[in-house]
Write a structure and sequence with these properties.
Layout: E1 4-5, H1 11-17, E2 29-34, E3 38-44, H2 64-82, E4 89-100, E5 109-120, E6 123-132, E7 135-148
Antiparallel strand pairs: 1-2, 2-3, 3-5, 4-7, 5-6, 6-7
């Protein structure tokens, strides 16, 4: 499965692919996908997102950990579309190193680009850049494991 694809993956297919449920599906659309190489995703940030009620009531900022979760979900979609027999597996986060450069606020469109640095059947290493209006807001490196759901008692 190493072909390039301009096929845009919409929210319903993303929801069916990820093990997450609402309100923790943090990818709205896949804009670009090169199987085994890279993915570009979009998350629309709205004032009605549930975390803004408490983070922060008078200065709404998307929590950095949720930006990292959006990156991890984007990476998981890339892995699912890159490993031919992903099947009944789930991605688990191994480690994160990130730099937060600018706040993400309601009305922003968060664009997430994930690049596979190394991928094996049991996991991988990615580099990601999240940006708003072409300006980098987060730079991150993550490691992932890929395990059978049965190993996690799911």
């Amino acid at each position: 499965m190493n072909e390039s694809s301009t096929h845009i993956i919409g929210y319903n297919e993303i929801r069916d692919m990820l093990p997450h449920g609402e309100p923790f599906i943090l990818v709205d659309r896949v804009l670009e996908l090169e199987s085994g190489k890279r993915i570009k995703c979009l998350k629309n940030i709205t004032g009605s997102d549930p975390w803004f009620r408490g983070h922060f009531p008078h200065f709404a900022v998307m929590p950095g950990v949720l930006i990292l979760e959006a990156i991890a979900q984007s990476a998981l979609i890339l892995f699912i579309k890159s490993i031919e027999k992903f099947g009944d597996k789930v991605g688990v986060l191994g480690g994160v190193k990130a730099n937060f450069l600018k706040p993400v606020k309601p009305g922003d469109q968060l664009v997430i680009e994930v690049f596979i640095e190394k991928m094996i059947s049991r996991g991988g290493i990615i580099h990601a850049i999240a940006s708003v209006n072409g300006e980098k807001v987060v730079n991150a490196n993550m490691t992932f494991g890929v395990v059978d759901k049965a190993e996690l008692n799911m």
